[in-house]
Design brief:
Order of helices and strands: HHHHHHHHH
Distance between the termini: 86 Å
Strand content: under 5%
Number of helices: 9
Length: about 220
């Protein structure tokens, strides 16, 4: 619903003329929608609920072909680019489905904290600029009575303020999952140790015994 609201309603029309509305679209597409999409796991749901044979195979092929479609309009291309970039960033961090490479939690944490300041920096640049930075938005319809510089400053304020709460929510969810998975891993290791014994501890004890035997003087 959020994707439809920012691409199929009046927001789309205003986004062609006003920098602030365009910034709102960009932030929503790249920061708000991807986490919701990934947390919903639509791809994993499709894989689990659809047969890979017969008609199910055709459904999966249709879904993949839809993902590969490429509209030609420049504005639509930017929207797809922002959505795709947001998904590519957030999928390794929050996705629970199968991925080609699964980053460690420490690596994902690093990615999060590298990305968080970027929108703040962009927002400060836009708010401190003394002239319009994008010629695309310098001529809004005169009847709207829009001050171009105020609109650009509003876009900068959105870039600064919009992304931080979303990033904070993502960090909280990420930390909760990290803690949950650590507890599961520790519980699994404890169960394995109860069944098979602690193999690492046994190997270490054997190593110490071998050292002790090697250092013991030979008796004649």
């Amino acid at each position: 619903m959020l994707l439809i609201a920012v691409t199929g309603s009046k927001v789309e029309s205003y986004g062609n003329e006003l920098f602030s509305v365009w910034m709102f679209q960009h932030l929503t597409l790249s920061m708000a929608i991807p986490p919701l999409w990934v947390l919903g796991s639509p791809g994993l749901l499709l894989l689990r609920s659809t047969s890979h044979r017969g008609p199910g195979r055709n459904v999966l092929a249709l879904a993949l072909s839809a993902l590969r479609s490429r509209p030609a309009a420049g504005h639509v291309f930017l929207e797809i680019f922002f959505l795709a970039s947001g998904l590519l960033f957030i999928m390794p961090v929050l996705a629970t489905g199968p991925l080609p490479v699964r980053q460690s939690y420490l690596g994902r944490c690093f990615d999060l904290f590298v990305e968080m300041p970027l929108h703040v920096f962009i927002g400060v640049v836009l708010m401190m600029a003394t002239k319009p930075l994008l010629t695309t938005f310098v001529n809004p319809p005169p009847e709207w009575g829009v001050d171009v510089m105020q609109d650009q400053q509003l876009a900068g304020a959105l870039a600064w303020s919009y992304g931080e709460p979303v990033a904070l929510v993502v960090v909280v969810i990420f930390a909760m999952r990290w803690n949950r998975d650590d507890k599961r891993m520790n519980a699994a290791q404890d169960r394995r140790a109860e069944i098979d014994g602690d193999s690492d501890l046994e190997a270490y004890n054997n190593f110490l015994r071998s050292l002790s035997a090697a250092e013991r003087p030979e008796t004649r």
